[in-house]
Amino acid sequence: MGKIARSKVKELLQMKAGENVLAKGWVRTKRGNKEVAFIALNDGSTINNIQIVVDKTRFEESLLARITTGACLAVTGKLVESIGSGQAVEIQASDIEIYGECDPVRYPLQKKNASFEYLRTVAHMRPRTNTFGAILRIRSHMANAIHQYFYNKGFVYLHTPLITASDAEGAGQMFQVTTLDLNNIPRNKKGGIDYSKDFFGKQTSLTVSGQLEGELGATAVGEIYTFGPTFRAENSNTPRHLAEFWMIEPEMAFYDIRDNMDLAEDFIKSLVRYALTHCREDIEWLSAKYDEELVSRLESVCETEFVRLSYGDGIKILEEAVARGVQFEYPVSWGVDLQSEHERYLVEKHFRKPVILTDYPKDIKAFYMKQNEDGKTVRAMDVLFPKIGEIIGGSEREASLEKLEQRITELGMSRTNLEWYVDTRRFGTCPHSGFGLGFERLLLFVTGMQNIRDVIPFPRTPKNAEY
Ligand code: 4AD
Ligand code: MG
Fold this sequence. Notes:
alpha+beta, CATH 2.40.50.140, BirA Bifunctional Protein, domain 2, 2 domains, five-stranded mixed beta barrel, 16 strands, 31% helix, binds magnesium ion
């Protein structure tokens, strides 16, 4: 008999009984009696395990004793129909090689049903749990879905820089990048930091958004998208904020705010539909374990038309709610930035479907948004989702050189690092729009998880940069 090729568990579970097979993976559980042991083996290819049946008379007791939860094995044997319930086939082991033992006392995942909080403290091991295996597979599928969606529409995937000298959102929440010796900072004549001595010869940071460079691409090749990590040094310890998160930012020439909303709605529905078909098994598993409404929530988003509403009308609804006795932690009135409690009230209580809120006050939005005729609002659009609140933020962009320059001046922003951006309006300006989808917010929605730290393998949050 020649060497048997290894089959993934996902494949084994679909194979017909009768073949000799080789499975490799990690032990999830081991149980049994005097005569036989049953090992549930998982290799991450699927949420399901393959059952290994071990006839104890055929193996050394010492070998069997070394097989504990978490150990890594290679098992050769015959695939047979399973008489037990729960699986169609199982492997009758003829040979077992132990690649790696796993000390049952020290293994961090020994306990079943460990809390999410505990698992965050052992995030280097948590991908081995069923829950995080499912999340990592879904995350990967969704990244693929995003590339497919834009590829099929002819968008150009644009790689924008992670290190930048400009603050795209103007919120001053950037992580500085420097090679200066912090114990011996070079000073200029005025006593300030002499950044000419720094690596790039100027002050630089990690990007908060690829949008500004995205606009350079869109005003050249028409339709682009970025998909990469972004960084925000905002000190928000919430279940929806990360200091390092991934964002998808499409930017389209000749799109107005309506086209932008249409694309955002179609995009997110396509992604959820993709999840329902390509990640069905994992989603159903998560749904059964944590959130029985997950599947129906996902299906309903695909089927309903999103509400489109102005910020002003949204504020009226919230004010009426307050008048009727609804309590919010933060006050609402025209001009305030909406908190997620307000967003979720509109989506979950008032409309019971996703809402696209438009025409926000210009003072709470970034400098690049197109100003409306009223002089007070801008053509912004936020997509608000059940359980999440804001999942997408975007706008039509200010195309007028004069108005853009005026806004930059009004806000007292430095022009030095923005001249290249202003050039898009100076040379052949065009109407254009775009938006940003927070990848982890999308994953929160698709997986039904409650905390954004649980949908990224290695979360970065204030006071936490482990691994
Ligand atoms: O609304 P934001 O700040 O918009 C922008 O950055 C624009 N430049 C996008 C554009 O028009 N091209 O962020 C966009 C989205 C939010 O709606 C949210 O989903 C996500 O990014 N996001 C975060 N996700 C996790 N942690 C954080 N700290 C986030 N901040 C924003
Ligand atoms: Mg936003």
